[in-house]
Each structure stands twice: as structure tokens, then as C-alpha cells.
Amino acid sequence: MLKDILSITGKPGLYELVSQTKNGLIVESLIDKKRFPAFSSSKISALEDIVIFSENEDIPLVDIFRAISDKENGGKCISHKEPNDALKNYFENVVPEYDRERVYVSDIKKVFAWYNILQGLNMLDFKDEKKENTEDKAENTDKKEEVKKVKATKHVQKKNATVQKKGTTAAKKVQTNTVKTKNK
Fold this sequence. Notes:
The structure is a single chain. By secondary structure, the chain is of the alpha+beta class. It is 52% helix and 15% strand. The chain has 4 helices and 7 strands. The strands form 2 sheets. It has a 5-stranded antiparallel β-sheet, with no helix packed on it. Strands 6-7 form a two-stranded antiparallel ribbon.
């Protein structure tokens, strides 16, 4: 969902990845649909890679968008132009565990601005994503079970090889002792 949506430091709004060049990317503004090159010297971040600091573990931006969407029933959220205290209160209501020391008001403003842009363009569809996540989790569970079975099989094979090797070594010792006894 957010894989091809980019944020470029120093440029307002969000951009969609159109193409890649040897020196950078061709992006299109989601607001005015203008295309331009974004060079590798610019700090470019895909929204799917952005996380918000929390007291426990970092929270992916998509999870925060989902929480806002749930709170607003899929509608727009508070404007990023509201007073700072109102923005902090709203954000705390949506993400109560966010780290108040490392998440600045400017970060909160970006989250709300980006959410409203994507929501206005109908680019936030969490229903399909939930289905995909459920399918991905089931597939990952199947893969994990398969890996466990392979590891267990390898472990058993290793043990058998060790037992077999010990058996061979024990048989050689008996044979050697028998030979020594006969030679005496």
C-alpha cells in the first residue's frame, strides 16, 4: 500500500515513485501530479519504512494510519495546522504509547498531513491489507512448520549418524581387543 509512496526531505507533501534512473528517481507529486527527478543526494524515505518511536518498540507508520482510520471511521483526521497542544492530545489519543521525548510536534504534523493526503486520494484501504496480512501469516506459519520439520529431521539424522559412528568405533575396539588377545 505505502511501498511506492515517498517522502522527500525539504519538499512538502508526498510523492509516488514513477521510475528509476541511474542518478535517482522520477517521482510524481500526489497533490499536483507534477513529475520531476529526485536525485540520490536527497533524503528519500518510503512511507512503509517510516516508524514512530514508542516506549516499547517502534510503530510502523501504516499501523498509526490504521489507528487514525479506525478512530475516524475512514474519514479525515485533525488538520496538521491545528495548535500544537491539540495535535499532541489527538496523537496521544491515537497512539498512547508514543515516546514524547523523541517524537516532535513536527513529526506529528507530518503524520496528520500525510494521512489526510492519502485519505483524500482514497489510498488508505486497510480491508484488503488485513486479508493479505492474514494470508501472509498463515503462509509464514506453514513455512515455519516446514522449517521445524526439516530441522527436526536433520537433527534425527545427525543423531543416527553419531550413534552409527559410535557403534562402528565400539565394534572396531572389540575387534582390536580380540586381535590383541589372540596375539598374546
